[in-house]
Specification:
This protein is of the alpha/beta class and about 300 residues long. Helices cover about 50% and strands about 5% of the residues. It contains 14 helices and four strands. It has a four-stranded parallel sheet with strand order 2-1-3-4, sandwiched between helices. Helix 3 packs across helix 12 (about 220-225), helix 9 (about 170-180) packs parallel to helix 14 (about 275-285) and helix 11 packs across helix 12 (about 220-225).
């Protein structure tokens, strides 16, 4: 366990001594302080809302550096752990940008990121929300539910109630809108859409590797893409063959409890009737900045990789 994770676990244990009304604001601020320290030391940042494909990207990046520098296969890059083994590997901060504001008090502004190369990984907000629903239902610890102000897991919410509630599309759209507004203000930023990454993984991952200065060969890019294919990741998750707890199923017998759950573009449409989809489309088109091109629901289709 790395130093930051140890501090976070200590923080959770200490916080149990405080009433919830005080505990969670204090913990969010301290987590923001820890993240601010990592951001200051980071060589690059990859930011995304949860369930936008970050683990998939992390696996590809990890595999690329494993090939280039002879690192063990079973590990995932966690900020500085790869850098500590080889100084040429950048320290990459993977963040959901959900705690830093509690420390900086910058609100929606992204000025804290201005000095760093930033990859913004985005995904259709309804697909994000549908994946968040299953994360909340099957994988999310009760502590994280309270810390991030999700509904209590004892509430029997339907997918549509979750999608249209405060923890669903309104929350995701607000996050995407903040980052859309920041794109013209950050000097070194690369936007990667999950849908484009699925459609042409090799080309999009090449863009990311070049942005990170990885100097990767075509063979290394192809190998990283193959290593991170959905069925390969799913198999490793079912076997718990990764050293990281990030790639572990909540219940190997329940497909909806997997971190690599479906990887389907537009898959949210499978869970709603036509009227519900109309409401979802209206919530997106009326409140979401068009910068990321998610004005209407994406038709469901199988992943290309």
């Amino acid at each position: 366990m790395n130093r930051t994770m140890s501090l976070q676990h200590m923080l959770e244990r200490a916080g149990r001594l405080l009433p919830g009304g005080r505990r969670y604001p204090i913990e969010r601020r301290i987590r923001g302080w820890l993240e601010a320290g990592r951001l200051e030391r980071a060589d690059a940042v990859i930011v995304s809302f949860g369930k936008s494909g970050r683990t998939w990207v992390r696996v590809m990046i990890s595999r690329l550096y494993q090939q280039q520098y002879g690192l063990p296969e079973g590990s995932l890059i966690e900020f500085s752990n790869f850098h500590d083994k080889h100084a040429a590997i950048p320290r990459i901060l993977f963040t959901h940008d959900n705690y830093l504001r509690h420390y900086t008090r910058h609100g929606a502004a992204k000025s804290a990121y201005a000095a760093k190369p930033v990859i913004v990984l985005v995904r259709h907000p309804a697909d994000i929300t549908m994946s968040q629903y299953f994360q909340w239902k099957h994988r999310m610890r009760a502590h994280k539910v309270a810390l991030n102000d999700y509904p209590r897991q004892t509430e029997d919410l339907s997918p549509f109630e979750f999608m249209t509630g405060a923890s669903g599309l309104p929350k995701v759209n607000r996050w995407l809108n903040e980052w859309a507004a920041a794109l013209d203000l950050l000097p070194n930023v690369l936007v990667v859409r999950y849908e484009d990454l699925r459609a042409d993984t090799t080309a999009e991952f090449r863009r990311m590797a070049d942005f990170l200065g990885a100097n990767a060969s075509d063979v290394q890019i192809a190998d990283a893409v193959e290593w991170a294919r959905f069925d390969n990741m799913r198999q490793r998750e079912s076997e718990a063959s990764s050293d990281s707890g990030r790639l572990t199923a909540g219940d190997v017998a329940n497909p909806d409890s997997y971190k690599t759950r479906r990887a389907k573009v537009g898959g949210f449409t499978d869970y709603f009737d036509d009227e519900q989809l109309r409401v979802i489309e209206e919530m997106i088109t009326s409140t979401l900045d068009p910068r990321f091109k998610y004005g209407t629901p994406t038709p469901a289709k199988e992943a290309a990789t």
